[in-house]
Design a protein that fits this description.
CATH class of the largest domain: Alpha Beta
Distance between the termini: 57 Å
Number of domains: 2
CATH architecture of the largest domain: 3-Layer(aba) Sandwich
CATH topology of the largest domain: Alpha/beta knot
Structural class: alpha/beta
Largest sheet: 6 strands, parallel
Number of strands: 10
Helix content: 25-40%
Length: 246
């Protein structure tokens, strides 16, 4: 009975991805195990899953009942296993000059993290680092916002972010914390070829201990008409600036 209960819990915790980009990227990722899929006949013309994946063909209205209300499933839903955790040391072993690393301090909104993953893929970032308990799990909303980048951008979850920042520094990264309270602009703070961009939570910003583990604090030069930017927008701008300065 206990084994059956554990298996049921595992099945209940499996995320469901929706949307053609998210599902197609999951199919293309050899590290991702897809348990089963639901497709409309129209979507099946574009998505051809391997024969070993069970597929149910249904109408769009039937698929809508498998995902949150109004989720744009585009005729494709997949139940998947979460990816295996990656060690920070393994990610840092892949470091290259000019490829920025993103560190997120308790950014919990799945849409923001998904959008950050998408920007990380667009600007060829090394990966992202988050806390394990203060970051969103893999989910359909996150995968949809990432538009396939969840499958391609390495994501490391750590227990202690301050300790991770120390390890990142030991790997030769210049750690820049983004905060509107800084006197230095991001352009002025950039310079070293290996940069870790540290961004704080929506609304609250970086915690004090996180900021203390940065080599520099910098701000984006935005107009006084706006107090701040959404964290995903800030990440995209900072990634562009880091890549341009490399």
């Amino acid at each position: 009975m206990r084994r059956k209960a554990r298996q049921q819990t595992k099945a209940e915790n499996r995320p469901r991805f929706w949307g053609r980009h998210a599902v197609a990227a999951a199919l293309d990722n050899p590290e991702r195990r897809i348990v089963r899929m639901w497709l409309t006949r129209e979507a099946a013309e574009f998505l051809v899953p391997p024969k070993d994946i069970p597929v149910t063909y249904a109408e769009a209205a039937d698929l809508a009942r498998l995902v949150p209300g109004d989720a744009p499933h585009q005729g494709a839903v997949a139940e998947v296993e979460r990816l295996e955790d990656m060690l920070l040391a393994d990610l840092l072993d892949q470091a290259e000059d000019g490829r920025p690393l993103l560190v997120l301090d308790q950014v919990t909104d799945p849409h923001n993290v998904g959008a950050i993953l998408r920007s990380a893929a667009a600007f060829d970032a090394l990966g992202i680092v988050t806390q394990d308990r203060h970051a969103p799990p893999e989910s359909g909303a996150l995968a949809k916002a990432a538009s396939g980048a969840l499958e391609t951008v390495p994501w490391v979850r750590v227990v202690n972010l301050a300790r991770a920042l120390e390890e990142i520094a030991e790997a030769g990264f210049w750690r820049i914390g983004l905060t509107g309270d800084a006197d230095t602009s991001l352009q002025e703070a950039l310079g070293p070829k290996r940069v870790a961009l540290v961004l704080g939570a929506e609304g609250e910003g970086m915690r004090q201990n996180t900021a203390a583990h940065c080599d520099a604090l910098a701000k984006l030069p935005i107009s006084g008409k706006m107090e701040s930017l959404n964290v995903s927008n800030a990440a995209a701008i900072a990634l562009y600036a880091a890549r341009a300065a490399a």
